[in-house]
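testing teh design pipeline on a random one, pls ignore if ur not involved
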Protein backbone atom coordinates (compact mmCIF):
# COMPACT_ATOMS: atom_id res chain seq x y z
CA UNK A 1 0.00 0.00 0.00
CA UNK A 2 2.82 2.38 0.89
CA UNK A 3 4.56 1.60 -2.44
CA UNK A 4 1.39 2.41 -4.42
CA UNK A 5 1.04 5.73 -2.56
CA UNK A 6 4.64 6.72 -3.35
CA UNK A 7 4.19 5.78 -7.03
CA UNK A 8 0.99 7.85 -7.26
CA UNK A 9 2.78 10.82 -5.68
CA UNK A 10 5.55 10.54 -8.28
CA UNK A 11 2.97 10.55 -11.08
CA UNK A 12 1.38 13.72 -9.71
CA UNK A 13 4.76 15.42 -9.31
CA UNK A 14 5.62 14.63 -12.94
CA UNK A 15 2.19 15.82 -14.06
CA UNK A 16 2.24 19.06 -12.13
CA UNK A 17 5.88 20.04 -12.58
CA UNK A 18 6.42 20.16 -16.32
CA UNK A 19 10.03 19.83 -17.50
CA UNK A 20 11.69 23.05 -18.55
CA UNK A 21 12.96 23.49 -22.09
CA UNK A 22 16.52 23.28 -20.80
CA UNK A 23 15.73 20.10 -18.90
CA UNK A 24 14.10 18.58 -21.99
CA UNK A 25 17.24 19.21 -24.03
CA UNK A 26 19.03 16.97 -21.59
CA UNK A 27 18.55 13.27 -22.39
CA UNK A 28 15.43 11.66 -20.98
CA UNK A 29 14.01 8.20 -21.44
CA UNK A 30 10.48 7.14 -22.20
CA UNK A 31 9.46 3.52 -22.48
CA UNK A 32 6.52 1.20 -22.14
CA UNK A 33 6.17 -0.74 -18.92
CA UNK A 34 3.81 -3.69 -18.70
CA UNK A 35 0.94 -1.50 -17.54
CA UNK A 36 2.33 2.04 -17.25
CA UNK A 37 4.27 4.59 -19.23
CA UNK A 38 7.70 5.21 -17.75
CA UNK A 39 9.43 8.58 -18.03
CA UNK A 40 12.99 8.36 -16.72
CA UNK A 41 11.92 4.96 -15.32
CA UNK A 42 9.16 6.52 -13.19
CA UNK A 43 5.41 6.05 -13.80
CA UNK A 44 4.10 8.90 -15.93
CA UNK A 45 0.49 9.88 -16.50
CA UNK A 46 0.09 11.45 -19.94
CA UNK A 47 -2.43 14.31 -19.82
CA UNK A 48 -2.53 15.41 -23.42
CA UNK A 49 -4.49 18.02 -25.32
CA UNK A 50 -4.67 17.56 -29.07
CA UNK A 51 -4.42 20.38 -31.61
CA UNK A 52 -3.45 20.41 -35.27
CA UNK A 53 -0.83 22.87 -36.58
CA UNK A 54 -2.49 22.83 -40.01
CA UNK A 55 -5.72 24.24 -38.54
CA UNK A 56 -4.08 27.08 -36.63
CA UNK A 57 -2.13 30.09 -37.99
CA UNK A 58 1.51 29.60 -37.07
CA UNK A 59 1.52 32.96 -35.27
CA UNK A 60 -0.98 31.51 -32.76
CA UNK A 61 0.76 28.21 -32.07
CA UNK A 62 2.50 29.31 -28.88
CA UNK A 63 -0.72 30.82 -27.52
CA UNK A 64 -2.66 27.59 -28.09
CA UNK A 65 0.12 25.46 -26.56
CA UNK A 66 0.15 27.69 -23.50
CA UNK A 67 -3.64 27.41 -23.24
CA UNK A 68 -3.26 23.62 -23.04
CA UNK A 69 -0.50 23.92 -20.46
CA UNK A 70 -2.56 26.30 -18.30
CA UNK A 71 -5.44 23.81 -18.32
CA UNK A 72 -3.17 21.16 -16.83
CA UNK A 73 -1.85 19.26 -19.84
CA UNK A 74 1.72 18.02 -19.84
CA UNK A 75 1.61 16.77 -23.43
CA UNK A 76 0.37 17.93 -26.84
CA UNK A 77 -1.09 15.50 -29.35
CA UNK A 78 -0.79 16.36 -33.05
CA UNK A 79 -2.04 14.93 -36.30
CA UNK A 80 0.19 15.50 -39.32
CA UNK A 81 -1.74 15.57 -42.59
CA UNK A 82 0.08 13.89 -45.47
CA UNK A 83 -1.89 15.76 -48.15
CA UNK A 84 -1.10 19.10 -46.50
CA UNK A 85 2.62 18.54 -46.89
CA UNK A 86 2.62 16.68 -50.22
CA UNK A 87 -0.17 18.25 -52.25
CA UNK A 88 1.49 17.22 -55.51
CA UNK A 89 3.32 13.96 -55.96
CA UNK A 90 6.90 14.17 -54.74
CA UNK A 91 6.71 17.88 -53.86
CA UNK A 92 6.95 18.46 -50.10
CA UNK A 93 6.48 21.54 -47.97
CA UNK A 94 7.57 21.40 -44.35
CA UNK A 95 8.83 24.97 -44.14
CA UNK A 96 6.19 27.58 -45.03
CA UNK A 97 3.60 29.04 -42.65
CA UNK A 98 1.75 26.48 -40.59
CA UNK A 99 3.40 23.63 -42.50
CA UNK A 100 6.62 24.24 -40.55
CA UNK A 101 6.06 21.44 -38.06
CA UNK A 102 9.61 21.61 -36.70
CA UNK A 103 8.81 25.11 -35.45
CA UNK A 104 5.70 23.73 -33.73
CA UNK A 105 7.83 21.02 -32.10
CA UNK A 106 10.29 23.66 -30.93
CA UNK A 107 7.52 25.68 -29.30
CA UNK A 108 6.21 22.60 -27.50
CA UNK A 109 9.70 21.86 -26.23
CA UNK A 110 10.27 25.45 -25.17
CA UNK A 111 7.03 25.37 -23.19
CA UNK A 112 8.32 22.30 -21.35
CA UNK A 113 5.75 19.85 -22.73
CA UNK A 114 5.87 16.46 -24.43
CA UNK A 115 4.48 15.36 -27.80
CA UNK A 116 2.36 12.51 -29.11
CA UNK A 117 2.74 12.47 -32.90
CA UNK A 118 0.06 10.95 -35.12
CA UNK A 119 1.46 11.07 -38.66
CA UNK A 120 -0.83 8.72 -40.60
CA UNK A 121 -0.47 7.91 -43.44
CA UNK A 122 -4.22 7.97 -42.74
CA UNK A 123 -5.54 10.05 -39.83
CA UNK A 124 -9.32 10.69 -40.32
CA UNK A 125 -9.61 13.93 -38.27
CA UNK A 126 -12.58 15.21 -40.29
CA UNK A 127 -9.88 16.31 -42.72
CA UNK A 128 -10.07 15.99 -46.51
CA UNK A 129 -9.68 12.28 -47.40
CA UNK A 130 -8.35 11.57 -43.93
CA UNK A 131 -5.03 13.15 -44.92
CA UNK A 132 -4.35 10.87 -47.91
CA UNK A 133 -3.36 12.94 -50.96
CA UNK A 134 -6.00 12.93 -53.70
CA UNK A 135 -3.39 12.69 -56.45
CA UNK A 136 -3.49 8.95 -55.72
CA UNK A 137 -7.07 8.87 -57.03
CA UNK A 138 -5.73 9.54 -60.52
CA UNK A 139 -4.85 5.82 -60.48
CA UNK A 140 -8.17 4.23 -61.54
CA UNK A 141 -8.03 0.97 -59.59
CA UNK A 142 -5.94 1.93 -56.55
CA UNK A 143 -6.65 0.48 -53.12
CA UNK A 144 -5.97 2.72 -50.11
CA UNK A 145 -4.80 1.78 -46.62
CA UNK A 146 -3.59 -1.55 -47.96
CA UNK A 147 -0.56 -3.36 -49.30
CA UNK A 148 -1.37 -2.14 -52.83
CA UNK A 149 2.17 -1.52 -54.12
CA UNK A 150 1.25 1.87 -55.61
CA UNK A 151 -0.26 3.12 -52.37
CA UNK A 152 2.57 1.73 -50.26
CA UNK A 153 5.21 3.24 -52.52
CA UNK A 154 3.71 6.71 -52.04
CA UNK A 155 3.17 6.15 -48.30
CA UNK A 156 6.74 4.93 -47.78
CA UNK A 157 8.13 7.93 -49.66
CA UNK A 158 6.11 10.27 -47.43
CA UNK A 159 7.10 8.45 -44.25
CA UNK A 160 10.76 8.55 -45.21
CA UNK A 161 10.59 12.28 -45.88
CA UNK A 162 8.60 12.99 -42.72
CA UNK A 163 11.07 11.01 -40.64
CA UNK A 164 13.71 13.61 -41.46
CA UNK A 165 11.47 16.23 -39.85
CA UNK A 166 10.72 14.08 -36.81
CA UNK A 167 14.08 12.59 -35.88
CA UNK A 168 15.73 15.72 -34.39
CA UNK A 169 12.75 16.03 -32.01
CA UNK A 170 12.55 12.48 -30.68
CA UNK A 171 13.08 12.06 -26.93
CA UNK A 172 15.95 9.73 -27.80
CA UNK A 173 17.71 12.79 -29.25
CA UNK A 174 16.75 15.20 -26.51
CA UNK A 175 13.44 16.30 -28.04
CA UNK A 176 9.81 16.28 -26.82
CA UNK A 177 8.36 13.43 -28.98
CA UNK A 178 7.73 10.52 -26.65
CA UNK A 179 5.46 8.31 -28.79
CA UNK A 180 4.30 7.90 -32.39
CA UNK A 181 1.04 6.38 -33.62
CA UNK A 182 0.90 3.63 -36.24
CA UNK A 183 -1.84 4.66 -38.68
CA UNK A 184 -5.23 5.50 -37.10
CA UNK A 185 -8.29 3.44 -36.21
CA UNK A 186 -7.39 0.74 -38.70
CA UNK A 187 -9.67 -1.65 -36.85
CA UNK A 188 -12.62 0.39 -38.13
CA UNK A 189 -11.47 -0.12 -41.72
CA UNK A 190 -9.61 -3.36 -42.45
CA UNK A 191 -8.16 -6.60 -41.15
CA UNK A 192 -4.70 -6.79 -42.76
CA UNK A 193 -2.30 -6.87 -39.84
CA UNK A 194 0.54 -7.23 -42.37
CA UNK A 195 -0.25 -3.68 -43.46
CA UNK A 196 0.00 -2.36 -39.92
CA UNK A 197 3.19 -4.31 -39.27
CA UNK A 198 4.71 -2.97 -42.48
CA UNK A 199 4.06 0.63 -41.45
CA UNK A 200 5.86 0.01 -38.19
CA UNK A 201 8.79 -1.52 -40.08
CA UNK A 202 9.03 1.58 -42.29
CA UNK A 203 9.19 3.93 -39.31
CA UNK A 204 11.88 1.80 -37.67
CA UNK A 205 13.88 1.60 -40.89
CA UNK A 206 13.83 5.39 -41.08
CA UNK A 207 15.22 5.89 -37.59
CA UNK A 208 12.06 6.44 -35.51
CA UNK A 209 13.13 4.79 -32.27
CA UNK A 210 10.51 5.98 -29.77
CA UNK A 211 7.68 3.74 -28.57
CA UNK A 212 4.68 3.26 -30.84
CA UNK A 213 0.95 3.12 -30.16
CA UNK A 214 -2.22 2.33 -32.05
CA UNK A 215 -5.67 3.90 -31.65
CA UNK A 216 -8.99 2.08 -32.05
CA UNK A 217 -12.50 1.92 -30.71
CA UNK A 218 -12.92 -0.22 -27.58
CA UNK A 219 -14.50 -3.26 -29.26
CA UNK A 220 -13.20 -6.78 -29.85
CA UNK A 221 -13.06 -6.61 -33.62
CA UNK A 222 -11.52 -3.14 -33.78
CA UNK A 223 -8.77 -3.95 -31.30
CA UNK A 224 -8.03 -7.36 -32.84
CA UNK A 225 -7.50 -5.77 -36.26
CA UNK A 226 -5.87 -2.53 -35.17
CA UNK A 227 -3.42 -3.38 -32.39
CA UNK A 228 0.16 -4.57 -32.76
CA UNK A 229 2.31 -6.55 -30.31
CA UNK A 230 4.72 -4.28 -28.45
CA UNK A 231 2.73 -1.13 -29.21
CA UNK A 232 0.76 0.72 -26.53
CA UNK A 233 -2.99 0.47 -27.00
CA UNK A 234 -4.92 3.68 -27.54
CA UNK A 235 -8.68 3.57 -26.98
CA UNK A 236 -11.03 5.93 -28.82
CA UNK A 237 -12.29 6.49 -26.19
CA UNK A 238 -11.40 4.66 -23.02
CA UNK A 239 -14.01 5.72 -20.49
CA UNK A 240 -14.85 2.53 -18.57
CA UNK A 241 -12.84 -0.16 -16.73
CA UNK A 242 -14.13 -2.77 -19.19
CA UNK A 243 -12.35 -0.98 -22.02
CA UNK A 244 -8.99 -1.37 -20.28
CA UNK A 245 -9.71 -4.99 -19.46
CA UNK A 246 -10.59 -5.75 -23.09
CA UNK A 247 -7.46 -4.03 -24.43
CA UNK A 248 -5.25 -5.83 -21.90
CA UNK A 249 -6.72 -9.17 -22.91
CA UNK A 250 -6.31 -8.62 -26.65
CA UNK A 251 -2.84 -7.03 -26.53
CA UNK A 252 -1.24 -7.84 -23.16
CA UNK A 253 2.02 -6.59 -21.72
CA UNK A 254 1.79 -2.94 -22.84
CA UNK A 255 0.18 0.19 -21.37
CA UNK A 256 -3.35 1.16 -22.36
CA UNK A 257 -4.59 4.76 -22.52
CA UNK A 258 -7.49 6.79 -23.85
CA UNK A 259 -6.02 8.17 -27.06
CA UNK A 260 -9.21 10.11 -27.83
CA UNK A 261 -11.32 11.40 -24.96
CA UNK A 262 -13.95 13.66 -26.53
CA UNK A 263 -14.75 17.05 -24.97
CA UNK A 264 -16.72 17.98 -28.09
CA UNK A 265 -17.83 16.62 -31.44
CA UNK A 266 -17.94 17.38 -35.15
CA UNK A 267 -20.70 19.17 -37.10
CA UNK A 268 -21.93 18.68 -40.68
CA UNK A 269 -23.61 21.20 -42.94
CA UNK A 270 -27.34 21.30 -42.32
CA UNK A 271 -27.10 20.12 -38.71
CA UNK A 272 -27.29 21.97 -35.42
CA UNK A 273 -23.98 22.69 -33.73
CA UNK A 274 -22.74 19.67 -31.78
CA UNK A 275 -22.75 20.54 -28.08
CA UNK A 276 -21.91 17.42 -26.03
CA UNK A 277 -22.77 17.38 -22.34
CA UNK A 278 -20.07 18.80 -20.05
CA UNK A 279 -21.21 16.70 -17.10
CA UNK A 280 -20.52 13.48 -19.01
CA UNK A 281 -17.06 14.73 -19.95
CA UNK A 282 -16.25 15.59 -16.35
CA UNK A 283 -17.28 12.11 -15.18
CA UNK A 284 -14.99 10.54 -17.79
CA UNK A 285 -12.00 12.71 -16.92
CA UNK A 286 -12.56 12.21 -13.20
CA UNK A 287 -12.53 8.45 -13.81
CA UNK A 288 -9.24 8.78 -15.70
CA UNK A 289 -7.66 10.95 -13.00
CA UNK A 290 -8.89 8.83 -10.11
CA UNK A 291 -7.47 5.70 -11.74
CA UNK A 292 -4.27 7.36 -12.95
CA UNK A 293 -5.06 6.55 -16.58
CA UNK A 294 -3.26 8.43 -19.32
CA UNK A 295 -5.42 10.22 -21.88
CA UNK A 296 -5.47 12.59 -24.84
CA UNK A 297 -8.30 15.10 -25.15
CA UNK A 298 -9.53 15.09 -28.75
CA UNK A 299 -9.48 18.00 -29.21
CA UNK A 300 -8.48 20.64 -26.68
CA UNK A 301 -8.55 23.18 -29.53
CA UNK A 302 -9.92 22.47 -32.99
CA UNK A 303 -9.13 25.52 -35.10
CA UNK A 304 -10.42 25.93 -38.65
CA UNK A 305 -10.69 23.93 -41.87
CA UNK A 306 -9.30 26.75 -43.99
CA UNK A 307 -9.49 26.47 -47.77
CA UNK A 308 -10.74 23.13 -49.05
CA UNK A 309 -9.47 21.01 -46.15
CA UNK A 310 -12.80 20.05 -44.50
CA UNK A 311 -13.69 16.41 -45.03
CA UNK A 312 -16.97 14.51 -45.01
CA UNK A 313 -18.66 11.43 -43.60
CA UNK A 314 -20.71 8.78 -45.34
CA UNK A 315 -23.38 6.94 -43.41
CA UNK A 316 -27.06 6.08 -43.29
CA UNK A 317 -27.91 9.67 -44.18
CA UNK A 318 -25.65 9.57 -47.21
CA UNK A 319 -22.98 12.15 -47.92
CA UNK A 320 -22.32 14.47 -44.94
CA UNK A 321 -19.76 17.25 -45.59
CA UNK A 322 -18.17 18.96 -42.58
CA UNK A 323 -18.51 22.67 -41.91
CA UNK A 324 -15.52 24.99 -42.25
CA UNK A 325 -15.22 25.66 -38.52
CA UNK A 326 -13.48 22.97 -36.47
CA UNK A 327 -14.44 24.61 -33.20
CA UNK A 328 -15.62 21.12 -32.14
CA UNK A 329 -17.15 22.58 -28.98
CA UNK A 330 -13.65 22.14 -27.56
CA UNK A 331 -12.34 23.58 -24.26
CA UNK A 332 -10.44 26.23 -26.25
CA UNK A 333 -12.74 27.67 -28.90
CA UNK A 334 -11.94 28.42 -32.54
CA UNK A 335 -10.63 31.87 -31.68
CA UNK A 336 -8.45 30.54 -28.84
CA UNK A 337 -10.59 31.58 -25.87
CA UNK A 338 -11.32 29.39 -22.84
CA UNK A 339 -14.84 28.01 -22.58
CA UNK A 340 -16.84 26.75 -19.61
CA UNK A 341 -15.44 23.28 -20.35
CA UNK A 342 -11.93 24.68 -20.12
CA UNK A 343 -12.60 26.21 -16.71
CA UNK A 344 -14.21 23.01 -15.41
CA UNK A 345 -11.33 20.82 -16.62
CA UNK A 346 -8.71 23.21 -15.25
CA UNK A 347 -10.38 23.15 -11.83
CA UNK A 348 -10.67 19.37 -11.90
CA UNK A 349 -7.03 18.78 -12.84
CA UNK A 350 -5.88 21.36 -10.28
CA UNK A 351 -7.62 19.36 -7.57
CA UNK A 352 -5.18 16.48 -8.20
CA UNK A 353 -2.02 18.57 -7.86
CA UNK A 354 0.11 18.22 -4.72
CA UNK A 355 -0.42 20.89 -2.12
CA UNK A 356 1.30 24.13 -3.08
CA UNK A 357 1.50 23.27 -6.79
CA UNK A 358 -0.29 25.61 -9.23
CA UNK A 359 -0.98 25.64 -12.91
CA UNK A 360 0.34 28.53 -15.03
CA UNK A 361 -2.00 31.50 -15.47
CA UNK A 362 -4.38 31.42 -18.44
CA UNK A 363 -2.85 33.37 -21.35
CA UNK A 364 -4.44 36.66 -22.35
CA UNK A 365 -6.86 36.29 -25.27
CA UNK A 366 -5.96 37.32 -28.80
CA UNK A 367 -7.66 40.68 -29.54
CA UNK A 368 -10.89 40.52 -31.56
CA UNK A 369 -12.52 43.30 -33.56
CA UNK A 370 -15.86 44.21 -35.09
CA UNK A 371 -16.16 45.50 -38.65
CA UNK A 372 -19.44 47.42 -38.97
CA UNK A 373 -20.03 46.83 -42.68
CA UNK A 374 -18.04 45.76 -45.73
CA UNK A 375 -19.53 46.79 -49.04
CA UNK A 376 -18.91 44.59 -52.06
CA UNK A 377 -19.50 45.01 -55.77
CA UNK A 378 -19.50 42.74 -58.78
CA UNK A 379 -15.89 41.97 -59.66
CA UNK A 380 -16.34 39.46 -62.45
CA UNK A 381 -18.61 36.61 -63.50
CA UNK A 382 -16.89 33.26 -63.49
CA UNK A 383 -18.11 32.96 -67.07
CA UNK A 384 -15.74 35.75 -68.15
CA UNK A 385 -12.75 33.84 -66.77
CA UNK A 386 -13.11 30.41 -68.34
CA UNK A 387 -9.86 28.74 -69.41
CA UNK A 388 -9.35 26.87 -72.65
CA UNK A 389 -11.57 23.78 -72.53
CA UNK A 390 -10.64 20.14 -72.89
CA UNK A 391 -12.74 17.99 -75.21
CA UNK A 392 -14.09 14.82 -73.67
CA UNK A 393 -16.44 12.26 -75.24
CA UNK A 394 -17.72 11.32 -71.80
CA UNK A 395 -17.47 13.60 -68.76
CA UNK A 396 -14.84 12.42 -66.30
CA UNK A 397 -13.88 13.08 -62.70
CA UNK A 398 -11.81 16.00 -61.44
CA UNK A 399 -8.90 13.64 -60.87
CA UNK A 400 -8.99 12.42 -64.48
CA UNK A 401 -8.41 16.02 -65.56
CA UNK A 402 -5.55 16.47 -63.07
CA UNK A 403 -7.56 18.62 -60.64
CA UNK A 404 -8.11 17.96 -56.93
CA UNK A 405 -10.32 20.79 -55.60
CA UNK A 406 -12.53 23.67 -56.69
CA UNK A 407 -14.99 23.59 -59.61
CA UNK A 408 -15.27 22.12 -63.09
CA UNK A 409 -17.67 23.31 -65.77
CA UNK A 410 -19.04 20.57 -68.02
CA UNK A 411 -20.67 21.86 -71.23
CA UNK A 412 -22.42 20.13 -74.15
CA UNK A 413 -25.00 20.72 -76.87
CA UNK A 414 -28.31 18.88 -76.87
CA UNK A 415 -28.67 17.32 -80.31
CA UNK A 416 -31.49 14.77 -80.20
CA UNK A 417 -33.23 14.84 -76.84
CA UNK A 418 -33.66 18.51 -75.93
CA UNK A 419 -35.95 18.43 -72.91
CA UNK A 420 -36.99 16.06 -70.16
CA UNK A 421 -35.29 14.42 -67.18
CA UNK A 422 -31.59 15.03 -66.84
CA UNK A 423 -29.83 12.52 -64.55
CA UNK A 424 -26.24 12.60 -63.34
CA UNK A 425 -25.78 9.07 -62.07
CA UNK A 426 -23.29 9.77 -59.30
CA UNK A 427 -22.57 13.47 -58.86
CA UNK A 428 -19.85 14.49 -56.41
CA UNK A 429 -20.96 16.85 -54.92
CA UNK A 430 -23.00 19.94 -55.87
CA UNK A 431 -23.94 21.46 -59.21
CA UNK A 432 -25.79 24.41 -60.66
CA UNK A 433 -27.50 23.60 -63.96
CA UNK A 434 -27.92 26.02 -66.90
CA UNK A 435 -29.68 25.81 -70.25
CA UNK A 436 -28.68 28.44 -72.79
CA UNK A 437 -27.07 30.37 -69.91
CA UNK A 438 -30.32 30.40 -67.91
CA UNK A 439 -30.22 28.97 -64.40
CA UNK A 440 -32.44 25.85 -64.13
CA UNK A 441 -31.69 24.55 -60.62
CA UNK A 442 -29.28 22.47 -58.54
CA UNK A 443 -28.14 18.91 -58.04
CA UNK A 444 -27.06 18.00 -54.54
CA UNK A 445 -25.33 14.81 -53.41
CA UNK A 446 -25.99 15.63 -49.76
CA UNK A 447 -29.75 15.54 -50.36
CA UNK A 448 -29.62 12.69 -52.86
CA UNK A 449 -30.81 14.95 -55.71
CA UNK A 450 -29.25 13.72 -58.95
CA UNK A 451 -31.92 14.62 -61.53
CA UNK A 452 -33.69 17.72 -62.77
CA UNK A 453 -36.26 18.59 -65.44
CA UNK A 454 -34.83 20.37 -68.47
CA UNK A 455 -37.41 22.69 -70.08
CA UNK A 456 -37.98 23.08 -73.77
CA UNK A 457 -35.69 25.55 -75.51
CA UNK A 458 -36.19 27.61 -78.66
CA UNK A 459 -32.57 27.01 -79.67
CA UNK A 460 -31.76 24.61 -82.46
CA UNK A 461 -28.90 23.23 -80.34
CA UNK A 462 -29.53 24.09 -76.68
CA UNK A 463 -26.38 24.43 -74.59
CA UNK A 464 -26.34 22.51 -71.30
CA UNK A 465 -23.88 23.53 -68.58
CA UNK A 466 -23.16 21.82 -65.26
CA UNK A 467 -21.00 23.83 -62.86
CA UNK A 468 -19.85 21.19 -60.38
CA UNK A 469 -18.30 21.84 -56.96
CA UNK A 470 -16.06 19.37 -55.18
CA UNK A 471 -16.81 19.48 -51.47
CA UNK A 472 -14.86 17.53 -48.86
CA UNK A 473 -13.74 14.00 -49.61
CA UNK A 474 -14.94 11.31 -47.24
CA UNK A 475 -12.49 10.86 -44.37
CA UNK A 476 -13.82 7.81 -42.50
CA UNK A 477 -15.10 4.34 -43.29
CA UNK A 478 -15.13 2.25 -46.43
CA UNK A 479 -15.78 5.04 -48.97
CA UNK A 480 -12.43 6.85 -48.87
CA UNK A 481 -12.15 6.59 -52.64
CA UNK A 482 -14.33 9.64 -53.22
CA UNK A 483 -13.51 11.02 -56.65
CA UNK A 484 -15.07 14.36 -57.50
CA UNK A 485 -17.19 15.75 -60.30
CA UNK A 486 -19.17 13.54 -62.68
CA UNK A 487 -18.17 10.04 -61.71
CA UNK A 488 -20.60 8.20 -63.97
CA UNK A 489 -22.81 9.00 -66.95
CA UNK A 490 -25.10 11.93 -67.72
CA UNK A 491 -28.39 11.02 -69.40
CA UNK A 492 -31.39 12.91 -70.75
CA UNK A 493 -34.51 10.78 -70.80
CA UNK A 494 -32.29 7.74 -70.42
CA UNK A 495 -30.02 8.53 -73.38
CA UNK A 496 -26.34 9.18 -72.67
CA UNK A 497 -25.04 12.66 -73.44
CA UNK A 498 -21.63 12.84 -75.11
CA UNK A 499 -19.14 15.31 -76.61
CA UNK A 500 -18.40 17.61 -73.68
CA UNK A 501 -16.24 20.67 -73.29
CA UNK A 502 -14.60 20.65 -69.86
CA UNK A 503 -13.24 23.76 -68.09
CA UNK A 504 -10.92 23.36 -65.11
CA UNK A 505 -11.60 25.95 -62.41
CA UNK A 506 -9.39 24.96 -59.44
CA UNK A 507 -10.24 28.10 -57.41
CA UNK A 508 -6.72 28.22 -56.03
CA UNK A 509 -5.41 31.45 -54.54
CA UNK A 510 -3.46 32.00 -57.76
CA UNK A 511 -6.56 31.41 -59.87
CA UNK A 512 -8.42 34.07 -57.90
CA UNK A 513 -5.47 36.47 -58.03
CA UNK A 514 -5.35 36.14 -61.83
CA UNK A 515 -9.06 36.84 -62.37
CA UNK A 516 -9.86 39.47 -64.99
CA UNK A 517 -12.27 42.11 -63.80
CA UNK A 518 -15.30 42.91 -65.95
CA UNK A 519 -17.47 44.56 -63.27
CA UNK A 520 -20.62 43.47 -65.05
CA UNK A 521 -23.40 40.98 -64.51
CA UNK A 522 -25.65 39.35 -67.06
CA UNK A 523 -28.00 37.86 -64.49
CA UNK A 524 -26.31 34.46 -64.73
CA UNK A 525 -25.28 33.29 -61.25
CA UNK A 526 -21.73 32.23 -60.56
CA UNK A 527 -20.11 35.57 -59.75
CA UNK A 528 -17.06 36.87 -57.91
CA UNK A 529 -17.83 39.86 -55.69
CA UNK A 530 -15.08 42.06 -54.30
CA UNK A 531 -14.75 44.77 -51.69
CA UNK A 532 -12.16 46.79 -49.80
CA UNK A 533 -12.36 47.71 -46.14
CA UNK A 534 -10.25 49.81 -43.79
CA UNK A 535 -9.45 48.96 -40.18
CA UNK A 536 -7.45 51.04 -37.68
CA UNK A 537 -6.06 48.04 -35.85
CA UNK A 538 -5.93 44.34 -36.57
CA UNK A 539 -7.66 41.64 -34.59
CA UNK A 540 -9.46 38.35 -35.10
CA UNK A 541 -12.93 38.65 -36.56
CA UNK A 542 -15.77 36.41 -37.73
CA UNK A 543 -17.06 37.47 -41.14
CA UNK A 544 -20.83 37.15 -41.35
CA UNK A 545 -21.85 35.94 -44.83
CA UNK A 546 -25.49 35.22 -43.99
CA UNK A 547 -26.55 37.56 -46.82
CA UNK A 548 -24.99 35.11 -49.28
CA UNK A 549 -26.09 31.60 -50.23
CA UNK A 550 -23.23 29.21 -51.03
CA UNK A 551 -19.62 29.77 -51.93
CA UNK A 552 -16.08 30.60 -50.87
CA UNK A 553 -14.40 33.63 -49.23
CA UNK A 554 -10.88 34.99 -49.64
CA UNK A 555 -9.39 37.79 -47.51
CA UNK A 556 -6.11 39.35 -48.62
CA UNK A 557 -5.59 36.36 -50.88
CA UNK A 558 -6.20 33.70 -48.21
CA UNK A 559 -9.01 31.18 -48.56
CA UNK A 560 -11.10 31.24 -45.36
CA UNK A 561 -13.20 28.28 -46.49
CA UNK A 562 -16.71 27.45 -47.66
CA UNK A 563 -20.02 28.92 -46.50
CA UNK A 564 -23.55 27.62 -47.07
CA UNK A 565 -26.83 29.16 -45.99
CA UNK A 566 -28.22 25.80 -44.82
CA UNK A 567 -26.12 26.41 -41.69
CA UNK A 568 -25.40 26.08 -38.95
CA UNK A 569 -22.28 28.13 -39.73
CA UNK A 570 -22.96 31.65 -40.97
CA UNK A 571 -19.66 33.26 -39.94
CA UNK A 572 -16.13 32.42 -41.07
CA UNK A 573 -13.15 32.90 -38.78
CA UNK A 574 -10.62 35.42 -40.12
CA UNK A 575 -7.40 35.51 -38.06
CA UNK A 576 -6.15 38.97 -37.23
CA UNK A 577 -2.68 37.99 -38.41
CA UNK A 578 -4.12 37.74 -41.94
CA UNK A 579 -5.40 41.34 -41.77
CA UNK A 580 -3.45 44.59 -41.89
CA UNK A 581 -4.03 48.04 -40.47
CA UNK A 582 -5.38 50.12 -43.32
CA UNK A 583 -6.70 48.67 -46.56
CA UNK A 584 -7.85 45.04 -46.82
CA UNK A 585 -9.51 43.09 -49.63
CA UNK A 586 -12.32 40.53 -49.59
CA UNK A 587 -13.42 38.35 -52.52
CA UNK A 588 -16.59 36.25 -52.36
CA UNK A 589 -17.61 33.68 -54.94
CA UNK A 590 -21.29 32.77 -54.73
CA UNK A 591 -23.05 30.08 -56.77
CA UNK A 592 -26.46 31.74 -56.66
CA UNK A 593 -26.43 35.49 -56.01
CA UNK A 594 -26.38 37.85 -58.96
CA UNK A 595 -26.08 41.06 -56.93
CA UNK A 596 -23.67 41.84 -54.07
CA UNK A 597 -24.61 42.04 -50.41
CA UNK A 598 -22.75 43.45 -47.39
CA UNK A 599 -20.52 41.43 -45.07
CA UNK A 600 -20.01 42.21 -41.38
CA UNK A 601 -17.26 41.35 -38.90
CA UNK A 602 -18.08 40.15 -35.38
CA UNK A 603 -15.97 39.22 -32.37
CA UNK A 604 -17.64 35.83 -31.88
CA UNK A 605 -19.03 32.95 -33.95
CA UNK A 606 -22.57 33.39 -32.58
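output:
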Amino acid sequence: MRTRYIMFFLIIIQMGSLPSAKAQRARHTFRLGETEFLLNDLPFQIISGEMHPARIPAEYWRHRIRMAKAMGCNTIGVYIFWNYHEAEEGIYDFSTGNRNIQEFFRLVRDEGMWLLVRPGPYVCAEWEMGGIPPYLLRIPDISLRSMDARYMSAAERYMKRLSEELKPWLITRGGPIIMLQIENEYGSYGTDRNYMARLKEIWLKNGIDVPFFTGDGPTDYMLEAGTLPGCAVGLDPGNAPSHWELAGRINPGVPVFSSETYPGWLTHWGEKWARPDTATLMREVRFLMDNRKSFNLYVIHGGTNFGFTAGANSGNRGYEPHVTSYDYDAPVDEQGRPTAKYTALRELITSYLPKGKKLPPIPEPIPAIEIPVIGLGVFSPLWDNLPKPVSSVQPKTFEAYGQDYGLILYKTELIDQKKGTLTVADLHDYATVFLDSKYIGTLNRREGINSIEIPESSSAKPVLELLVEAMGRINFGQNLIDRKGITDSVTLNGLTLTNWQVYNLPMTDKFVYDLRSSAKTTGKPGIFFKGNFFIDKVGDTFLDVSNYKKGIVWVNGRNLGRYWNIGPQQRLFCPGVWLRAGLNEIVVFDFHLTHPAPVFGFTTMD
